[in-house]
Amino acid sequence: MELLQKTGQFEGKFLVATPGLASSFFAQTIIYICAHNEDGAMGFVVNKARGMTFCDLVEQTDVFTECSVPQMASEIAYTPIGHGGPVDEHRGFVLHTTDYCGESTIPISETVFLTSTTQVLRMIANGQGPHQCAIALGYSGWGPGQLETEILENSWLTLDADTGLVFDQDHETKYDRLLRSSGIQPAHFVAGYGHA
Fold first, then answer.
1. Predicted local distance difference test score (pLDDT) of residue 188
2. Rounded mean pLDDT of 157-171?
3. Best CA proximity match to 32, nearest among 179, 177, 162, 184
4. 186 and 175 in contact (C-beta within 8 Å)?
């Protein structure tokens, strides 16, 4: 149990929702943890779409107030926007590869950076952004000790993060694919949860 007192140990990891969270916002979610310290933890759900595209996002916000929205390649325009979590749901965040680094970019791991400025959205729209990215509105947050308690209560599995899965746009199948690649059969995970 002492290991759970170590801050920072979940940064760059996946939290995978267990069946105990089936009736909450977090049902069958995968969260990429970006920060974990004595003040709490924060991360982004990486397998829940908001039902809007990148084109919708830039048209509905003030990303391009001084000029018109540029003509975007279809793979950029139709990129789905993720639902990062229930906190600050109107704020945008971009998890991305390390080939882009702005003034406010924060390194999360050796392969994933985080930027939350409109500048990175403009760069993406103009085809000059990072090679791969996951754009989300909102984030998931925990107060001091809250995440550790939820893990002890078996609400979450912790797994090494797969960068490919962070940027993968096939949100519908991510949860099952991650469980299977970890040696967990999704059907058994649900049926066998909580039984000795």
1. 64
2. 94
3. 162
4. yes
